[in-house]
Automatic annotation (TrEMBL):
Keywords: Acetylation, ATP synthesis, CF(0), Hydrogen ion transport, Ion transport, Membrane, Mitochondrion, Mitochondrion inner membrane, Transport. Subunit e, of the mitochondrial membrane ATP synthase complex (F(1)F(0) ATP synthase or Complex V) that produces ATP from ADP in the presence of a proton gradient across the membrane which is generated by electron transport complexes of the respiratory chain. ATP synthase complex consist of a soluble F(1) head domain - the catalytic core - and a membrane F(1) domain - the membrane proton channel. These two domains are linked by a central stalk rotating inside the F(1) region and a stationary peripheral stalk. One of its GO terms (molecular function) is proton transmembrane transporter activity. It is found in: Mitochondrion inner membrane. Belongs to the ATPase e subunit family. GO terms for biological process: proton motive force-driven ATP synthesis. GO terms for cellular component: mitochondrial inner membrane; proton-transporting ATP synthase complex. The lineage of its organism: Eukaryota, Metazoa, Spiralia, Gnathifera, Rotifera. This is ATP synthase F(0) complex subunit e, mitochondrial. It comes from Rotaria magnacalcarata. InterPro entries: ATP_synth_F0_esu_mt (IPR008386).
Length: 87
C-alpha cells in the first residue's frame, strides 16, 4: 500500500482551526467557573441542611433522655422535681 502524501492546508483553514480551538478552551474555562460557583453554593446549602438536621436530632435525643430519666425516677419512687432542685 502506498501512503498518502499530506496535502497543504490553506492558511485560512489553519487559522480557523486554531481560533476554534482557543475559543473552545476559553468557553470551557468560563463554563467550569460557572458550574463551580453553582456547585459551591449547592454544597454549602447541603452542609447547612445536614448540620441543622444533626442539631435537631441531638436536641430530640436530649429531650427523650430527659423524659426517660423522669420516667425512671417516677418508677423508682423519687420525685423528679426535688432531685433537680438539689443540683
Amino acid at each position: 500500500m502506498a501512503t498518502a502524501v499530506p496535502r497543504n492546508v490553506s492558511p485560512l483553514i489553519r487559522a480557523g482551526r486554531w481560533s476554534l480551538l482557543l475559543a473552545g478552551l476559553v468557553y470551557g474555562r468560563v463554563h467550569l467557573n460557572t458550574v463551580k460557583k453553582r456547585e459551591e453554593h449547592a454544597r454549602q446549602h447541603e452542609i447547612d441542611h445536614v448540620t441543622q438536621h444533626a442539631i435537631d436530632q441531638i436536641a430530640e435525643q436530649k429531650i427523650k433522655a430527659d423524659q426517660s430519666m423522669i420516667d425512671l425516677a417516677i418508677a423508682a419512687g423519687v420525685d423528679p422535681n426535688k432531685s433537680k432542685a438539689k443540683h
